[in-house]
Design brief:
heterodimer, A: alpha+beta, 3-stranded antiparallel beta sheet, globular, B: alpha+beta, Ribosomal protein S3 C-terminal domain, 3 helices, Dynein light chain Tctex-type 1 (chain A), dynein intermediate chain binding (chain A)
């Protein structure tokens, strides 16, 4: 029982991170339309919000949060990532979100210390 | 201090920026036009090659390599990243590359082990 608890505290849990990401995007961007002048502030706010919530989890992890915002105009976008880490403890979570005028892709990578 | 020097070497020295840029330029994208059928293969190959080269450095780091390829049609694209880590030992490097029909952004993050 104790072992189970300990490993939950030191593994990357995708569901809870996914929820943090979704909440951050909804809060910062929500129904706003893509605006060139504001997108800089949105990407910064989204990653900052995510990171604050993630550090509140109080787990022995280092985090990397990556956010991409793309205007919807028919362009193709492909993203890929690969990681060299410890499969037992480290993990990642990518959330793809959209509204009427933009696509938002947020990736969170968690590396156990 | 030794580890810090190695970190400086990798991230402020020439490896990351030039090597990563070469990996994107020479092997995979070069003069190709954006192609929806091939782009999946390209992004996978770029991240794989970058990671292989980084691991060969044999340093006590975990690595994350991300790559985004976007077709040029006038759409706006913005990327940002933020990291919660040890600022003295960990680091990142981002390379932006383009040709006539597409943009490519490659980011490398390196996190020190202990």
């Amino acid at each position: 029982m104790l072992n189970c608890f300990v490993s939950l505290q030191t593994t990357f849990i995708v569901e809870e991170v996914s929820k943090i990401i979704k909440d951050s995007v909804e809060t910062v961007i929500g129904e706003n339309s893509y605006k060139h002048g504001r997108v800089n502030q949105w990407t910064t706010s989204v990653v900052e919000q995510c990171l604050i919530q993630l550090s509140k989890l109080d787990k022995p992890f280092k985090f990397i949060v990556n956010c991409i915002i793309m205007q919807k105009n028919g362009a193709g976008l492909q993203t890929a990532s690969t990681c060299f880490w410890d499969n037992n403890t480290d993990g990642s979570c990518t959330v793809r979100w959209e509204n009427d005028t933009m696509y938002v892709i947020i990736s969170v990578f968690g590396l156990a210390i | 201090v030794d580890l810090l020097l190695m970190f400086c070497d990798v991230f402020q020295g020439s490896f990351n920026s030039e090597e990563a840029e070469n990996v994107v330029k020479e092997s995979v994208l070069g003069g190709d036009d954006y192609s929806q059928t091939h782009v999946n293969k390209w992004t996978a190959a770029i991240v794989e090659r970058c990671l292989t080269q980084l691991v060969k450095l044999n340093k006590p780091y975990k690595y994350i390599v991300t790559c985004s390829v976007m077709q040029k049609t006038g759409a706006g694209l913005h990327t940002a990243n933020s990291c919660f880590w040890d600022t003295s030992m960990d680091g990142s490097c981002t390379v932006r590359w383009e040709n006539r029909t597409m943009y490519c952004v490659v980011s490398v993050f390196a996190v020190c082990i202990a």
